């Protein structure tokens, strides 16, 4: 929805059209046509998000969460000293 909205498209109608196209065609490579090229197939437009990129994003998010929790533990344990 954010991609459609940032592209100047109506996010709800765009998402509805994409979901129905996913169901009707069975293709998982259908996406938002930000360029206005009347082509929603992301494989044909060479828009590919590889698995290794998604794995790296999850690892970084996990690492960030752990760091925040460690900082929170230090702050909470330091409050008892005053």
Characterize the structure shown.
This protein is mostly helical. It is 60% helix and 0% strand. It is built from three helices and no strands. The longest helix has 29 residues, at 51-79. It is elongated, with a radius of gyration of 20 Å. The mean pLDDT is 88.
- The N- to C-terminal Cα distance equals 47 Å
> Could you state the oligomeric state of the chains shown?
single chain
Report the β-strand fraction as a percent range.
under 5%
- Structure class: mainly alpha
The shape, in one word, is: elongated
Number of helices: 3
The largest β sheet comes out as: none
Mean pLDDT, to the nearest integer, reads 88
The count of β-strands is: 0
Query: What is the H/E order?
Result: HHH
Rg measurement, Å: 20 Å
Low-confidence stretches: none
Indicate the percent of residues in helices: 55-70%
Short description:
The protein is an all-alpha fold and 82 residues long.
Can you give keywords for this protein?
3 helices, single chain, mainly alpha, 82 residues
How are the elements arranged and paired?
Layout (H helix, E strand, L loop, with lengths): L1 H5 L4 H15 L25 H29 L3
